[in-house]
Here is the input.
Amino acid sequence: MSDIPWEQVDAVIARWAPRGRAGLLPCLEEVQSITGWLSPEVSRRIAEGLKVPLADVFGVITFYGLLYDRPVGRFVVRVCDDVSCFINGSREIVDACRSYLGVEPGETTPDGLFTLETHPCLGRCERAPFMMVNELEFGPITPQDVPRILEEVRKSGAGQEEEGV
Amino acid sequence: MNTSVLLQRVGQVDPTRLEDYVAHGGFDALRRALLRRPEKVVEEVKASGLVGRGGAAFPTGVKWEAVARESRTPKYVVCNADESEPGTFKDRVLMEGDPFAVLEGMAIAAYATGASEGYIYVRGEYARAYTLLRSAVDQATQAGFLGDAILGSDFSFHVHIYRGAGAYVCGEETALFESIEGKRGQPRQKPPFPTTHGLFGQPTVINNVETLANVPPLILNGAEWFRSLGPEEAPGPKLFSVSGAVNKPGVYEATMDVTLRELIEEYAGGVRDGGKVQAVLVGGAAGTFVGPKDLDVPMSFSGLRRVGASPGSGAVMVVDERVNMWDVLLRIARFFAHESCGKCYPCRLGTQRQLEIVTRMASGALRYKDFLRLQDLHATMRDASLCGLGQTAGNAIISGLKVMGMGMSDD
Here is the structure.
């Protein structure tokens, strides 16, 4: 696991600290966008900075589907598998993702690049079947589109890494 | 009746530019409201007959009046943009296509009720809506439509934007307050109601995105005009999210006397591949399935009540005959079991048991006793759950079985 960029994290915490507990949710969201997930040490730092009991910080993290208390891939693939997307073939989209990534929903690829999730209605029913990769939106899509989309995302991810070095 | 009020600017204006909104009549309603006394604005909204568009259909003017009467300050206006009801995407279309209209509605609500702070709580998965609203708030504040001394008056109103983090229950108003306050998003016991004890325990107006988008045209054109649109019991324009097995899924605007058949066949281009309707889920996962024989009912409260349904958020999900209904019911049962917040036990246990039973039935094991158990769970969750999530968690399952010809007599 890479080192935590504490300077960035502390800057976010400092910005939300004046709001106290009401700053907790946006603070967690912003910190997670930097660190990828909310580890115990990051959570402790937030708890101290916002003066919220650590147990309550864990309570909030574990309540919300988009906050992670475990490492996830750099790209979270969210395939909508709710009613409208199902009617339009979401099961085949999920299958295409499983076979391309070689993981089951809820799992992360061994290279740490992708986490696959099936998701309750994402509110893009007019674009069913629909999926998101982080905040990128794809739909309507066919199972044949899936490898191309994920390949492009993988390449863009490798690019980011090189830029970061 | 087809209307173009709420969607008039969607797709016509650049949602990133305040000037575009103003050039299309934007903030005229706020100007007009500021020339009147706040209680006159409340009266106008009351007289219009506007009811909440989030699903509960509470009269908006009555809510505003209750908050206006409170003397405790600060007061808040909260925009519920946590649109998570399956099959519902109208608020996203509004926020992505006409974000300034939501802000204008909020500002008018704040002026009418004496609120000084506003919060928009946007669903976490709606990244584009969030970005557009952020930019809209910044621009509107810079131009003097929000912030201190709005348009040279002594009215000030500051708007904050929060992002949800993936919890359906946070669309419940008190759970949404808890979430903004930095807690687990679990509903509070009601009463007290938000009008007296809302966000941070203060008097709060909480309205859905679409409800707030109704406010500027209502103020501009007057209550009489608003009442002239659609049925007496539920006047004004309404957005319907039509999806599933239709040729043209999308958000459509009509008055509430539009029928289900019109929405499916005329607005959404009919069932895909010339197929037939097997069932229609009206109102989202919390809603009710109606069968192909009931498509000619109007989407009004009294109309849908005749077939045991209600318009809810205006979601219309069409299931054609190609689809296995068990797979659909299984997804709905799974949804509620996943999204139950766990605070009250009728819902916490009930949604789990419901999922187990529906899973068993979907695998082909149909036992008479399981039908009775589902019926019992439905009644228990409906009567004893703390919030709307549990109260409605059995609706679609029970009504779905009925449409499949496996219905039991009512209660």
Remarks:
- The longest helix of chain A spans residues 145-164.
- Chain A has two domains: 6-63, 75-164.
- Chain A touches chain B at residues 20-26, 28-29, 50, 52, 56, 59-60, 63-67, 78, 81-84, 86-88, 119-126, 128, 132, 135, 137 (CB under 8 Å).
- The longest strand of chain A covers residues 75-80.
